[in-house]
Structures are given as C-alpha cells and as structure tokens.
Task: inverse folding
C-alpha cells in the first residue's frame, strides 16, 4: 500500500525499483481478475470433462464395510462417543470454531507479553492434542 498520490509517480520504474500501485482499485482489481480467471478455467474444465454419476444416492442404504471415515470427521465422532448427544457435540464444535475465529482478535495488542501469547496458544495446543489423540485412537470407525 502506498500513501503518495498516483499522479505524482513516474510512469516507468527504473531498473531495480518496483512499480507501485494503489491498493484500491488497481490491486483489488488484479486480485479479482485472478480469481475470476481461476473460476473460468475450472468452469471450462468441468464442462469439457464432466464426472459421470454411476448410481443414484440412497440416504437409507447402509454404507459399504470398506468405506473409510475422513480424518477431519474423527474428532467429531470421538466427541459424540464421549458426550452421547449430537446436540452437545455440535455445541462443542461450534465453541471451538468460534474460539479460533476470535483468537486473532484477542491477540491484537502490540506488546510482546509472553503471558498473553501463552493465553492464546493454550486453546490451540489443546485442540491439536485432541485432534492427534482422536486420530490415533479412533473409536472403532474404520479409517
């Protein structure tokens, strides 16, 4: 980002200097064009090479015995096996997610206090330990 006016800058940068762009609208438009180009490439590839649907999905059918659980769902399965209630499981996962969204907002001070860093790092480390343990000791779910 720059604070100088755009009109006062040289048109071409010298060798070794970087060309400066104002954040808005130039930089924002460049990022937007890159995102839209990526979406266009994905849309064209999905139109040219569509995936075939082998069979119709049946939500009442029993899963195949060889089906493996995704690793990201194993902590939720372990929480459900601990609490025996899907409602409490959803509430706990929501609390963890809200905590991780709010952690950067809690740690916005400019001071380098080790106590504050530990306060922010402890919930993250506890969640990582829980994730590792739930992956290691998955409760009878194949995968």
Result:
């Amino acid at each position: 980002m720059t604070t100088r006016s755009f009109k006062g800058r040289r048109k071409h940068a010298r060798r070794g200097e970087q060309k400066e762009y104002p954040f808005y609208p130039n930089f924002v438009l460049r990022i937007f064009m890159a995102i839209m180009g990526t979406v266009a490439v994905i849309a064209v590839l999905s139109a040219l090479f569509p995936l075939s649907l082998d069979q119709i999905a049946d939500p009442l059918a029993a899963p195949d015995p060889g089906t493996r659980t995704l690793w990201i769902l194993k902590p939720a399965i372990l929480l459900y096996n601990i609490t025996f209630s899907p409602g409490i499981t959803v509430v706990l996962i929501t609390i963890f997610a809200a905590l991780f969204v709010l952690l950067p907002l809690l740690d916005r001070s400019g001071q380098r206090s080790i106590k504050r860093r530990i306060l922010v790092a402890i919930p993250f480390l506890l969640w990582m330990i829980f994730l590792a343990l739930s992956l290691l000791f998955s409760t009878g779910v194949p995968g």
The radius of gyration is 25 Å. Helices lie at 23-48, 74-83, 86-106, 114-136. The mean pLDDT is 78.
